[in-house]
Amino acid sequence: MEKSGTITPEYLAEYFHIGIEDAEEVFGRLTRMEFSNAEKVIRFGDDADALYFIDDGKAYVLNKDNETINEMQEGQCFGEYAILSGEKRLSTVAAHGKLVVYRMEASDFMTFIGQHPDVVGGMFRQVYGQLSQKHTKLLALAKRRRGVISLDSGRGRGSLLKTIITYAVVVALFLVVSFVAPSPDKVTLPWLLIPMAFLVCFVLITKRTLEGLILTVMLTAGMAHGGDFITAFIDTVVEGLGNPSMAETVIVMGMMGAVTSLLSAVGGISSFRRLAERRIKGGKASLFAMLLLMIVIFIDESLNVITAAFCLQRIQDRNRIPREVPALLGSFSIAICSMIPLSVWSFYLSSTMSVESGGNGEQLFLSALPFNFVSILGILAAVLLCAGILPRTKAMKKGRKRVDEGGKLWPEGSEKYFLGEADNEIYGNPLDLIIPLGVIAAVSVGFGIVRNGGSFGMYASAGLAVGLIVMFFLYVFRRLLTPAEFVEHLVDGLESVIVPALLLVLCDGFAVSLNTMHFSDILTENIPVLSGHTAIILPAVLFIVFTAMTTMMGDPWAMYSVAIPMAVHFSTALSASLPLCVGAVCAAGVAGFNLCPYVEDENAVVSAVGINPGDYRKVRISYWTVISVLSVALYLSFGLALRP
Question: How far apart are CA 505 and CA 297, in angstroms?
């Protein structure tokens, strides 16, 4: 049968940079194969017996935990790395729909490269070329997931039987609530705890947080409106979307996403690398510069750690700094962003608080900042790390010993996480990043002060709007971007915040439904105030419970949608300090995220620094455990000092 399609002799000649006659010979040795949906082409841990060219269709690349890490389409090749390295397969590739590939046996491939040794270099250049857009790809991944949704939406996480059992339990619970639950005005505390328990259990079992939140809001809305789950859910969501403050929140988050996309597009990120390499020579100076850059690029925690690690890596490598050190420093990016009111992380927090505090979430967030002890201790630890006086753990000592004995800068097995150098990296001007961020900060604070009658405040929507206008003139009239390209990146940024915006709407619906059932009044009636002792330990209890919840779920964003309403209600019912309790919840998200052994967003640090996930977790979790324990002591102390 005549072979035709994407994979042709002409394709192979271009791919390998060989003559058409040699390409025809290679083409003649290929075997055409077809795979049905979800069928495995290669499997993790198998011997490398062939490489494959995709002729038609798409394929998912899965890691050893069956989590999707990439998607491939026609014209791409896979399986060559394991042949060249002599290692076992490092991933699984499965068909997404019908997939047609051409298989090249490993023996034929090795014979071919023996005859054409220059082919190997060309192949690796293509591989690195696919990875070279490090900022765009990593940021898109981080923004799309945000810890609440994965690329595969559960693909490979379990069998059909598991899904059937899960949803059989869900349907049974909904039926029980429909026919057994009391009317909304007669709901008791045990019934109110059902939705919260359901959310935690669903996420822990399925690892699908967004799906769990939707079901939880549907369940809570049905309880609040007499069992009509579907109508109640739709009405609740529509009500939330029609709220002017909610609409402003969604717009602001979209503008933040647009700013992040534009900063990456014009090379404002990469420019800092050249600047750093001209000005910074010493090891400690490079670490302090990395920390400072993470603070300057405050708007997004993934953006700041990717930029900072990328810009300072060469200098740190020249100074023989083990990769464990910048990896640990990168873990403090969330602590930094959670303390700066204009970051995406902080704005999500303040917006979630607005749902529960009558629209003054910004002020509540600012009042809670001094009580976010985890982030404060984390930033202090980052400074001590840069100064070289942070006590070393076993993992850090092991890394230092390895380097001092002349070994590699990175732990064993980290090589496959290197992104490599980009042939087409865009190097812009540092001012293309500094000017917009400076304008956003200045305008937000200035308008916020005016808006609050002279007292300190933040007006993020005004700052971001003015910042985007400045970026348009700064980039378009200097021909860094065309007007059409500017709008494209604007749209990309808006698209990136769909999931966080949906979370906020669901959070609002959850809170509205709880209030409909008089959640605060029921708490007050059912929780005794034991001579003030409950109020004293409440902040520490909130911190411990929600740190554990985040650690198990790997998802601070969804945790906040449950925890912040509870913190507000509990502190009111027990007359505890509201800023202290809310600060404890904010800190719990930061602590739990860094204590979780499987968070997906660790990809940003792993890929930017060049360290394998296992060693990064050993370094990160040990230090954050100490920070969390110290924070518990502080919450107990301040709970006593601020007791009613």
Answer: 28
